[in-house]
């Protein structure tokens, strides 16, 4: 059995003190929001407990679907790199970025500069990239780009949409176990200012070409939505913020495991959700659900 772990929306704390010049932008509003609310929601001590629980499960690979940092301050990226190194080396950890990882235009390239080893494919390609790990063909997409203040939208920028359709179709012909990583979910019904702007086109690509799993973050809550595919329905799965405090978050910190077994054309996969049990303040198994097979 191959075990893939999925965590997201690290929102690494503590937030380094910004330079005053860095606050003359969308970051200014974000910093006020951090001081007023988010610093109580996203806690380094809670994150450490979640990561310790995840590592004790000894997953074969770890996927991180974005929002590692908060305001894309230059000083946030090296600590995020150290956090990733603590999860595992770049062969064992795959990252796609979120909207907080390119919060303003001046920070647009920082994630790629610092985390490139975790965000490239087996052939050194950028988004979309493919990494083969065990039975999984992991397809990494970036919806991360700077947006206006109060907007947290995403978009599959560049030629990703056209290329991901070809990649998913080719992997489908091999009957590989395709795992798509994307920060913004390609589902319907997202808030206008938090949506994936080309979600309809991504749904079209999934419907035409298929995938076995689509894993996302962004909404900071557990979710499972089924989208149509060419041969079978596709589970689209979100996880809570890994650093979410049980005291201040509706869906406190946790992560998912995917137990993948079987063979090409006859895959089996079970979803296991682990996270904070709100009542007795421990991390435990919250859900176990067969997804296929
Ligand atoms: Fe987030
Ligand atoms: Fe996000």
Description:
The chain has 293 residues and is of the alpha/beta class. The protein has a single domain (2-292), classed as Purple Acid Phosphatase, chain A, domain 2. It has 6 helices and 12 strands. Helix 5 packs parallel to helix 6. The model has no long low-confidence stretch (mean pLDDT 96). The chain binds fe (ii) ion (FE2) (2 copies).
Shape: globular
Beta strands, count: 12
Number of helices: 6
What gyration radius follows from the Cα positions, in whole Å? 18 Å
| Biggest sheet: strand arrangement | 3-2-1-10-11-12
CATH homologous superfamily identity: Metallo-dependent phosphatases
CATH architecture: 4-Layer Sandwich
Percentage of residues in helical conformation = 25-40%
Distance between the termini: 14 Å
Small molecules held by this entry = fe (ii) ion
Averaged pLDDT: 96
Strand content: 25-35%
How many domains? The number is 1
List keywords for this structure.
single chain, about 290 residues, alpha/beta, Purple Acid Phosphatase, chain A, domain 2, 6-stranded mixed β-sheet, about 25% strand, globular, binds fe (ii) ion
Helices and strands, with pairings:
Blueprint: E1 2-7, H1 26-41, H2 44-56, E2 61-64, H3 74-87, E3 93-95, H4 110-115, E4 129-133, E5 136-140, H5 160-173, E6 177-181, H6 199-209, E7 213-216, E8 223-227, E9 234-238, E10 254-263, E11 266-277, E12 282-292
Parallel strand pairs: 1-2, 2-3, 5-6, 6-7, 7-9
Antiparallel strand pairs: 1-10, 4-5, 8-9, 10-11, 11-12
Helix pairs in contact: 5-6
Bound molecules: fe (ii) ion (2 copies).
